[in-house]
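Hi U.,

Before I forget, here's the chain from the pilot set. I'm dumping it here mostly so it's searchable later in email.
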Amino acid sequence: MGGKKEYRIGDEDIEGLIEALAALSSSPETSRLLEEILTTVVKLGMESKDIGDLKLINNAMKELRYSFKVFAPYRDVRKVVIFGSARSKPSAAEYKMAEKFARKLSDSGYMVVTGGGGGIMEAGNKGTGPGGQFALNIRLPFEQKPNPYINEKEKLINFKYFFTRKLIFIKETDATALFPGGFGTHDEGFEILTLVQTGKSRPRPIVLLEPSGMGYWSSWKRFISGQLVNNGYIDAQDLKLYRITTDVDEAVRYIQDFYRVYHSIRYIGNLTVLRLNRELSPGKIADLNRRFSDILTGGEIRPSQALNAEVSKGEFVGLPRLVMKFNRRDYGRLYELISSINGD
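Structure:
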């Protein structure tokens, strides 16, 4: 009574076919999920007579499937997505800055992801070494053609929809870099800020770069502080979610430092698990509890080995952890906690 309703068609013959097809085309670990996906497809066929709706879902699923296939072999390599104007000229200071930034990231072992077009995107691909880049191009009637510096065409993905492209930008990367740009740059920037502010995306370094003297992001920050913070539309702590800099080396260092000790995050029930690249001393953990008790709903920040839910899926079992009852609200403070873990 009151249990979760099974996701089914209600026709035993169709459900038998779905189960058989899932068994033939998946592993034991994924067969139940594939059954649900196939059930959704069949429900669409039974419920929808709108060709436009079916085309949208068909195209979106194709784009996501192919993207997962392209990125799957590189999931263990950290990646940085670079956003910025498609209209910046090679002579522009921000273009040169983006090229230098991408080169330093590539030299440091990071892979680079761009939107595949001109301007800042072109600079990002130009600065990245062979084998270290991806390009997620959007098909538009103007402006956006793949730039000539994409040196591995199998890592170029063409998208029909912005929403699937934006999903892959976030899902498959570990850091975000924003250079000066137009509506698209702000759309992408505000989306990732919203996702980390609400906990819908894992914490990540978000760095906003501008050439010295340009004042692009500096002006943006004055608006954010003067209008959004002062009017109570966001909290002052949300300003901790990003870093503005005019220095490429500082930007690269900020990304590297974010993952120096902190590795990744996982939510299990009411617990937040922070995986670490090395153990923290008892004194450091005591300091974290003194400084960050305000973001806990109870208990303490404590060291832990991998939890059962992580062990069963083989999720970084050998890494040490911190476990806490984070309130899942104050993500600006969580960024401060991560910074402290990394040795601020």
